[in-house]
TrEMBL record:
PROSITE patterns: ADH_SHORT
EC numbers for this chain: 1.1.1.100
Family: Belongs to the short-chain dehydrogenases/reductases (SDR) family.
Pfam families named among the record's database cross-references: adh_short_C2
Organism placement in taxonomy: Bacteria, Bacillati, Bacillota, Bacilli, Lactobacillales
Name assigned to this protein: 3-oxoacyl-[acyl-carrier protein] reductase
Enzyme class: oxidoreductase
InterPro entries, A to Z: NAD(P)-bd_dom_sf (IPR036291), Sc_DH/Rdtase_CS (IPR020904), SDR_fam (IPR002347)
Any single GO BP term: bile acid metabolic process
Transmembrane segments: none
Amino acid sequence: MDRLKGKVGVITGGSSGIGLATAEKFIAQGAVAVSADLNPAANSAVDFVKTDVTNADSLQAMVETVVKKYGKIDILVANAGVAEEKAPVAELNVDNWNKVINIDLTGVVLTNKFVVAQMVKQGSGSVINMSSILGVVGGPKSQAYSAAKAGVANYTKSQAITYATSGIRFNAIAPGYVATPLLKTLPKDVTDGMVSKMPIGRLAQPEEIANVIAFVASDEASFVVGSLINVDGGYTAQ
Ligand SMILES: NC(=O)c1ccc[n+]([C@@H]2O[C@H](COP(=O)([O-])OP(=O)(O)OC[C@H]3O[C@@H](n4cnc5c(N)ncnc54)[C@H](O)[C@@H]3O)[C@@H](O)[C@H]2O)c1
């Protein structure tokens, strides 16, 4: 299927998990996919520009590199993210709070800043920011991650309104639990309980989230603006 034919997509964190599956889906649907990540993807078909989403200079250089090579950026998936150290707030590790907020919330906004400036010049674009089920419902011992992901969701709605008549669409995706390397960074007692919370009875595969991102990124989704799209196997329906 050529749903994304001729499009140029930038995916932060595009070298692993959901981001890599999204990059591969974009290529399968006719787009160029650039992973803006700290590390390259194992798949050489995915272009790579070394990028740190917490660093403004790095993001600006990434946009310049992509535009020089491909002439434009049609799609941004601001997906780079990390997990947190789970703890009740009375035992909060403030350094970890700052790190997670910096990558998962500020990193999304900063990436938007530089890529959307390019989209404004073009008069078009589709921005998809990565939220999470934990930005929608409460999870035990979650602080920075929940705050960051809820922040991404509402920030995205604000920008969707701001840019609604500009040709640039903003949406956010809230996956349930997805089988990616990120889950391996969580303690066993957290991952053990995950499947039981999913009405569908299993974790999502990264490709299932990528399918939705590719559709929302496409021109077929032209009326999808300012949505927080739950891709969670029924979690939030409970
Ligand atoms: N896996 C899940 O269950 C799940 C559920 C909901 C939301 N999410 C979100 O989806 C996104 C992708 O997660 P994943 O599960 O695929 O994780 P992952 O660990 O497989 O991939 C994350 C990628 O982000 C990159 N990254 C981290 N810090 C970066 C930085 N400062 N600059 C650039 N790149 C950086 C990593 O190098 C990695 O390639 C994250 O935002 C995560 O919070 C994941």
